[in-house]
Amino acid sequence: MTASQNGHVEVVDKLLQHGATVDLKEKDGWSSLYAASQNGHVEVEGHVEVVDKLLQHGATVDLQDKGDNTALTHACRGNDFTTVSILLSAGAHPNVCNKAGQTPLLLAVRKNNMAIVRELVNARVDVDHMYQNGLSSLMLCCVEGNSEMANLLLEAQADTDLQQSEYWIHSSDVCLQGRSSGYSNRSHGTRSKFSD
């Protein structure tokens, strides 16, 4: 676990060669693949190579921790495009949902990472999945005024008629008008309700 987290490729390779269990979990449910996948955002040298090495040795790509997060969830939360791409190529499920109701797409949109959102869209992610408070990825783009990302989701056939019951927002009105129609994410607490 520690070797994976710190990007020590040669050490990880040696441990695997000597029979280390690739999917062994810590008490919190974390595996070596999680540890390597969540460290890309702090630029740990070697983490991408470790992810690749673990997958080559049969790491379960969609293994979940106690919060139902997967390596893909961690990589999206960490803004790590390269690891996201590797995991998707290895068959990671793009629509996995953790116990907080977050999907990789929702996390990528929240992080404003266009490249990862595009990668997930190309992997046929469910663009209409709604977060536990009734917020979809398209709605989140509209609330935050991200027209470029909203356009990408609309091109991927995101539903403009989804209703956000808690905040009474009609996403198509917001997007097509190019403004928030008086909606304030501060006054309605959107950021605090969408914890990343």
Notes on the structure:
One of its GO terms (biological process) is positive regulation of transcription by RNA polymerase II. It holds the Pfam family Ank. The chain is mostly helical. The chain contains 13 helices and 2 strands, in the order ααααααααααββααα. The protein has helices spanning 2-5, 9-17, 32-37, 47-56, 71-77, 81-89, 104-110, 114-122, 137-143, 147-155, 171-177, 185-188, 190-193, and strands at residues 163-164, 169-170. Helix 8 (114-122) packs parallel to helix 10 (147-155). Mean pLDDT is 76; it is low at 165-172 and 176-195.
SSE order, one letter for each helix or strand:
HHHHHHHHHHEEHHH
Shape: elongated
CATH homology group of the domain at 1-94: Ankyrin repeat-containing domain
Largest sheet: 2 strands, antiparallel
Number of helices: 13
How are the strands of the largest sheet arranged? Answer: 1-2
Based on secondary structure, the structural category is mainly alpha
- Provide the residue-averaged pLDDT: 76
Organism: Geodia barretti (Barrett's horny sponge)
GO molecular function: kinase activity; transcription cis-regulatory region binding
ANK repeats: 1-27, 28-66, 100-132, 133-165
Pfam family, one: Ank
Compact description:
The protein is mostly helical and 196 residues long. It has a domain of 94 residues: Alpha Horseshoe (Serine Threonine Protein Phosphatase 5, Tetratricopeptide repeat). It has 13 helices and two strands.
List strands and helices in order, with pairings:
Elements: H1 2-5, H2 9-17, H3 32-37, H4 47-56, H5 71-77, H6 81-89, H7 104-110, H8 114-122, H9 137-143, H10 147-155, E1 163-164, E2 169-170, H11 171-177, H12 185-188, H13 190-193
Antiparallel strand pairs: 1-2
Protein name: Kinase D-interacting substrate of 220 kDa
Pfam families: Ank, Ank_2
GO molecular function: kinase activity; transcription cis-regulatory region binding
